[in-house]
Amino acid sequence: MVKICCIGAGYVGGPTMAVIALKCPNIQVAVVDISVQRINAWNSDQLPIYEPGLDDVVKGCRGKNLFFSTDVNKHVCESDIVFVSVNTPTKTRGLGAGKAADLTYWESAARMIADVAKSDKIVVEKSTVPVKTAEAIEKILTHNSKGINFQILSNPEFLAEGTAIQDLFNPDRVLIGGRETPEGNKAVKALKDVYAHWVPEDRILTTNLWSAELSKLAANAFLAQRISSVNAMSALCEATGADVTQVSYAVGKDTRIGPKFLNASVGFGGSCFQKDILNLVYICDCNGLPEVAEYWKQVIKINDYQKNRFVNRVVASMFNTVSNKKVAILGFAFKKDTGDTRETPAIDVCQGLLGDKAQLSIYDPQVNEDQIQRDLTMKKFDWDHPLHLQPMSPTAVKKVSVVWDAYEATKDAHAVCILTEWDEFKKLDYKRIYDNMQKPAFIFDGRNIVNAEKMREIGFIVYSIGKPLDAWLKDMPAVA
């Protein structure tokens, strides 16, 4: 029986290994992590991450051919294929601070594999890593090999949170990069055979190591670029009276462009986009390509601009101050159908409003108070370190209350900011919300999910990103 071990039981490792176990009943899969709390959660009825469909997959395989354990050394030693899915946070100090990936966790994983291995292993990069990481890992493993052969493969994940299980069941492509040597080709085939249990062969792409590593960064950069492009257009739409929804629909009808990732919003979030682009910028700078670095930097600048623009619009519309006004925040996760708050635009929007002394009442169906308080006080990039290395639960932000009901959040509020596109926010009784708010009552729709005209009929003053502005908003312009 082939044995697979995955180091790292997070958003990538957990779901990916669960699906491999489900689709390959003849393969034994172990997911290992040094966090006892996280492994206990994977072994419980309350999984540590929320992802539609994940519960059924895990519970169908757990204890049969899928195991979650803190005994890292044992499972690594026994495995044939070791996936490494550890954090690669952005460096906060030293060379490349603010841009380069911190490979501390990767390096210690590689050293541990070399220490405990007693048989040949295929080591698979599953985290998003900078180009040429495989070379560094190879050097560590080779110099500590004790005669054991290691083959390094790059197998980047292309999951979208909220649809990760469907993405794993039916991927656009599976990418495997390896050394173009007989041993490398053999390792690529071994991993290809795992995915071939359920993925059609024409969707399993093989490349050299560096192409696979760079493809992941490039894919995320292109997706983020599309969001920043439509968000840049949204500002122009507001200035000219155009409607960004109509513009993006017309643009998306061009088959060369397509409709995906053209929804204007308060900005992109998630664990990958900003981190990967910063990484790309650093690699370009290191390779003497400052013009290319500058090009990709602009994608992040537009994203920051969009969040600032949203905050400025809120404050300017409400007589240029939100001091001591209650602002309801609907949605804190970076997108619907996930509890993930990493780099969510809600953090910057909330911090911007708190900077003007607003009282925030926050509701998200999948994010708890501890996580929200942690996010609002944590330093940039700290979120990407393992939980036990993050600051302990900080002192609560005094002007923030977290509630478990949208109606409670909006009661007596001066304004509502919609920051996540949860389906339930489309179905709320906005007449009831309006009746219980301070007047004038404002809605700032950062996801364009409510019908602005219907909201205006109820009595709201409405701001929807990239849509023609209310007369009220034109009279109170936001200075960016």
Describe the structure.
It catalyses: UDP-alpha-D-glucose + 2 NAD(+) + H2O = UDP-alpha-D-glucuronate + 2 NADH + 3 H(+). One of its GO terms (biological process) is glycosaminoglycan biosynthetic process. Its EC number is 1.1.1.22. It holds the Pfam family UDPG_MGDP_dh_N. One of its GO terms (cellular component) is nucleus. There is one protein chain. The protein has 480 residues and is of the alpha/beta class. The chain has two domains: 198 residues, Rossmann fold; 232 residues, NAD(P)-binding Rossmann-like Domain (Rossmann fold, 3-Layer(aba) Sandwich). Helix content is 43%, strand content 14%. The protein is built from 19 helices and 14 strands. The strands form three sheets. Strands 3-2-1-4-5-6 form a six-stranded parallel β-sheet, with helices on both faces. Strand 1, helix 1 and strand 2 form a beta-alpha-beta unit. Helix 9 runs parallel beside helix 12 and helix 11 runs antiparallel to helix 12. The model has no long low-confidence stretch (mean pLDDT 92).
